[in-house]
Amino acid sequence: MRIAILIGSIRQGRQSHKIAHYLQKQLQGKGLETDLIDLAENPLPMLEERVGMHPQLPQAVKELSQRLHAADAMIFVTPEYHGSFSGVLKNALDYFYSEFSRKAIGIVTVSAGKLGGVNAATQLQQVILSVGAYALPVKLLVPEVYGAFSDTQELTSEHTAKSATRFIDEFYWLASAIYEKKKAAVSI
Ligand SMILES: Cc1cc2nc3c(=O)[nH]c(=O)nc-3n(C[C@H](O)[C@H](O)[C@H](O)COP(=O)(O)O)c2cc1C
User: Which stretches make up the NADPH-dependent FMN reductase-like domain (predicted)?
Assistant: First the structure.
């Protein structure tokens, strides 16, 4: 099973990529294949038209479409900005639909404050349902992110480590249930 982790923060001095790297390591430790998609390294132009409708789809969008199609399940990582998830993530999501449909998607939100981006997480759940995907009910909220990692980017927050373990367990359960169902459907 292949898991794409999409980092929806490109801010200078950003923090959200740290939990994405942590999750990637944890998933790899469970023997899962991962694809870390960093929108800072793979920038997309502002949406002029979506996949399938654009007369000259930008190459970066084509490549991202292929990577998303190749994933069996996904994790979206986003900071909370002004009470919602990031604009750069929304711009990326708006290009696609079939890349997401019938896939499990886990939500991870990051904030500097104590609430861990709960508003962003709740709103992102709605968007995930709108693209025909299955939003994982358990969300991973990362509060006080500036104190949650060491200088060498190791996770030091016990609270977040515990939340991450539960999130990964739940994510793996849903993602593998859908994956097995699809495999069974193919072999009929
Ligand atoms: C434009 C902007 C808006 C923000 N709005 C919120 C907010 O609504 N709620 C919150 O808890 N933190 C807010 N913050 C603080 C972010 O949660 C914090 O900067 C966190 O590190 C964001 O992740 P990032 O470092 O990957 O950008 C905001 C930060 C920025 C840059």
Answer: 1-142
Q: Where are the domains positioned within the chain?
A: 2-187
Structure tokens at 181: 């169902």
Place of tokens 């996904």: 74
> Which fold does the domain 2-187 belong to in CATH?
Rossmann fold (3.40.50)
- 63-105: per-residue pLDDT in tens? 999 999 999 999 999 999 999 999 999 999 999 999 999 999 9
Per-residue pLDDT at 145 exceeds 70: yes
Query: Closest Cα partner for 8 from 118, 102, 124?
Result: 124
User: Is ligand 1 within 6 A of the CB of residue 137?
Assistant: no
- Name which residue sits closest to atom 30 of ligand 1, judged by CA: 81
**Does residue 80 line the site of ligand 1, with CB under 6 A?**
yes
Q: Are 120 and 84 in contact (CB under 8 A)?
A: yes
* Mean pLDDT, residues 7-16 taken together: 98
pLDDT tens, position by position, 176-188? 999 999 999 876 5
Contacts (Cβ under 8 Å, ≥6 apart) of 6: 37, 39, 74, 75, 76, 77, 89, 92
CB 20 within 8 A of CB 36: yes
CA torsion sign for 93, 79, 2, 136 is negative
